[in-house]
Amino acid sequence: MVTTDRAPSESGVAAPAPAEQIFELRGVTVSYAGVPAVRDISLDVRAREITALIGPSGCGKSTLLRTLNRMNDLIPRARVEGSVRYHGEDLYAPGVDLVQVRRRIGMVFQKPNPFPKSIHDNVAFGPRVLGMDGDLDEIVERALRRAALWDEVKDRLKANAFGISGGQQQRLCIARALAVSPDVILMDEPCSALDPISTSRIEDLMTELKEDYSIVIVTHNMQQAARVSDRTGFFTVDPDDRAGRMVEFDVTDRIFTNPADPRTEAYVTGKVG
Amino acid sequence: MEAATVFGAARPRYGERLIRALLFLAALLSILTTVGIVASLLRETVAFFGDVSLVDFLTGKEWAPLFADPKFGVWPLVNGTLLVTGIALAVAVPLGLGSAIFLSEYARPRTRRVLKPILEMLAGIPTVVFGYFALTFFTPEILRGALGVDVQIFNALSAGIVMGFMVLPTIASVAEDAMSAVPQSLREGAYGLGANRMQVSTRVVFPAALSGIVAAVILGISRAIGETMIVLIAAGQIANTGVNPAEAYETMTAFIAATGKGDVPTGSIGYKTIFAVGFALFLMTLVMNALSIRFVRRFRQVYE
Questions:
Q1: Minimal Cα distance from B106: which residue of A?
Q2: Would you say residue A272 has pLDDT above 90?
């Protein structure tokens, strides 16, 4: 395990370091109103890899994803136990600046959720609220190019973001996340509302992005996990307490060809789920 | 073979027809009432302008319709209405929208469940209570006493501020509904970029809910312009073209109410002025509503 020796920044969250481990989760349990949604998860997310979380509905994979940028803090009575470390630092330590957490750890949601603003203003939103330095137009262009959307929208940056297709909207949301220069991008079933062509464009984009970013993706689509990810965690619902558990976490190839657990095999071969 | 064998013959549904007819009547009745009001207003207004020139009415600076030498310039009444309404909005819009943002974006669900009904209860207080509250408490105890403002006993300031508190719950409640209707996914998107609560509220939720928020403010303005009891009791009845809120003013509604109480004979010029002023009031609200609809169409941000 590689740990970072960088001093914590003022915000309490370290600047991205070239550490192997981005996230280290140990015994993480997330509960809503006292009822555990996902229980006792330990896994490591590595830098510049795509880590996929798969499993049937209700297995807590989205819940787990949302603990990685503290999005669950928005839900009253949500509670996170166990240890979530980001570059070696406790993400849930008192005094951690949520603004910095979410700036470093970007998120793309299940349904494209552009703001009711122009394409330009959607991408500029993050840099604006964070008061980032630099030429805004340049930041916007760079983010849109990185999200493979620039050529399609460069002539209508002032147009409302709702005027573009769903797949374009989702790439806009990716551009919006990239504009604040994150370290990690969390994707919560980013293609579930998209057609196959748009889906494949997003998958290509993810593969390009992992050169510079670490990606954690939750997906229902096993083929997608098999196609794009480096490591995969398989989650299931525990029949006793209805909470999600992680059955197995391994290199994606092994999960899909030679899984250790018969439940994983049953799921990836389509026998259940 | 008859075609009706699969589904059977449709029986006439008399109950459904009856309900449909009753609902149509209900809708028709409200339209007919509105038409009736406008028609009766219009009839007397036309009669009024048979006696008084429209130019005098619109441009005159003096309002004394019941004097021996009557003057029919409506401006002082419009001025009074605008002044009191302006003061009311200066109170109600910031406080109302502030309350709406608090309830929708900051308050915990339980707090909201307790606070919102209490706020809406404020809207149920009869305006006559607000009126005497302004005259017998707010003017002497707060304005003159606690704040030491030198106001006349009847004044626009007290009536306006108290009217602001009357209008506040309407604005807060309607605006809160509009803001709560903004999809959670937009908030999450903004929080996910590192926006703080204030930025999410003002840069994402507020613009997304703008059309509903404008509607809330319009509703507040309409209530303020049309409000009668508070100004009748607390603002005085002096036609005044000034702008000093410490003085007494007569508003259009207060004139109508005071004059309509019965000491003018039906058919007299004094009687007709009531309708002329009423019609002017009606036109003001109408124009404002039309303008606001245009505004909303223009600046509306559609999500979904």
A1: A74
A2: no
